[in-house]
Design brief:
Strand order of the largest sheet: 4-3-6-1-2-5
Shape: globular
CATH architecture of the largest domain: 3-Layer(aba) Sandwich
Distance between the termini: 23 Å
CATH class of the largest domain: Alpha Beta
Helix content: 10-25%
Number of domains: 2
Largest sheet: 6 strands, antiparallel
CATH topology of the largest domain: Rossmann fold
Number of strands: 12
Low-confidence stretches: 45-49
Radius of gyration: 18 Å
Length: about 240
């Protein structure tokens, strides 16, 4: 595995208690939209042996100038160190890794099911699809508890405007109907919700990313609705 040096460029709040961290993209670092990296925070010992490591999906497009990762700011040693890190701090990146990438057959729609911070690899995939004008029909179902929990909403709406082949369907699991005038979907992602927006459920390739319980539940839902398990691809965010 190749290790690259990088530096922290910026950090931004993208939802309540959720931050995006922008790093310098190392020279010659190439990746596919949907892949992930290991991020090493370098230690203070001479051999830097006391550093911390965490795995992150890349949230930025392969064509973007910087490398973006995002995370809920839980009270862990790694995230405390990351949040306190001064701009310009050097880090180490290993990767890219993973095969959670968009399929090649543009005749088959891609249906993306995201829960919480599982939106990260999909933001990369959607940004890349818009920039490259890929011809896949793409549907994103993005489940959060409340408005405040949903990261990158503005960017996702803009991607929907930029790509006529992309439909964005956010849903909120703990909102009462018409809360603050919300007219969109509420509740967990269900076969009925999918059918309303996608139509026939057999045919697309499904991509699932989010907390393990969400991914397992969505996988069961799809299989019970008759989707072939070979058409389901998953990425789990354990301990995110």
């Amino acid at each position: 595995m190749i290790a690259y040096k990088s530096t922290l460029l910026n950090r931004t709040e993208v939802a309540e208690e959720t931050m995006a961290f922008h790093f310098e993209k190392p020279r010659n670092f190439l990746f596919k939209a949907g892949q992930y990296i290991d991020l090493h925070l370098l230690g203070s010992e001479p051999d830097r042996s006391n550093g911390l490591t965490h795995t992150f999906s890349i949230a930025s497009s392969p064509l973007a100038e910087d490398l973006v990762v995002t995370t809920r700011m839980r009270d862990t040693e790694f995230k405390r160190a990351l949040s306190a890190m001064p701009i310009g701090t050097e880090v180490q990146i290993e990767g890219p890794m993973g095969s959670f990438a968009l399929h090649n057959n543009t005749a088959r729609p891609a249906v993306l099911l995201a829960g919480g911070i599982g939106i990260a690899p999909f933001l990369s995939i959607l940004s890349h699809a818009a920039m490259e004008k890929l011809r896949h029909p793409i549907f994103l179902f993005y489940a959060n508890r409340y408005f405040e929990d949903a990261a990158f909403m503005e960017a996702l709406w803009k991607l929907g405007e930029a790509n006529p082949r992309f439909r964005f369907v956010p849903t909120f699991t703990r909102l009462p109907k018409n809360y603050r005038g919300w007219k969109g979907e509420t509740g967990h992602i269900s076969p009925e919700m999918l059918s309303t927006h996608v139509g026939r459920l057999r045919g697309p390739i499904y991509y699932l990313a989010g907390p393990p319980a969400m991914v397992a539940g969505a996988c069961r839902t799809l299989c019970e609705a008759g989707v072939d398990q070979d058409d389901i691809r998953t990425e789990e965010f354990a301990g995110y």
